[in-house]
Design brief:
mainly alpha; 102 residues
Amino acid sequence: MERPMTIPNQDIYYQYSESRELLTATLIERNQLLRALESLSKASQGPVSTEIIARFDLGRAQTLLFQLSVITKKIDSLIILINSYAEKAGMPQVEMIDHGST
């Protein structure tokens, strides 16, 4: 029995949709990590003193930076995956914008 022609496209659409949802969740997680890192850095701001320097949690900062690097790689991979599905299904691709370059 042959499968209808629409099944492969439905599979690609499903994979595309699921990947976009995963990308959204991953971007939310990235934003939470960035806020945690920002909060950590602000906690140590103020007049320079031994007490303030001691309050900066270097271990936590390193953990957050590592998690951000892992999340960034995951985001890059998801974008490549989504765009491959988009190309096959004629769906909109995800555009990466680099805000760091001027």
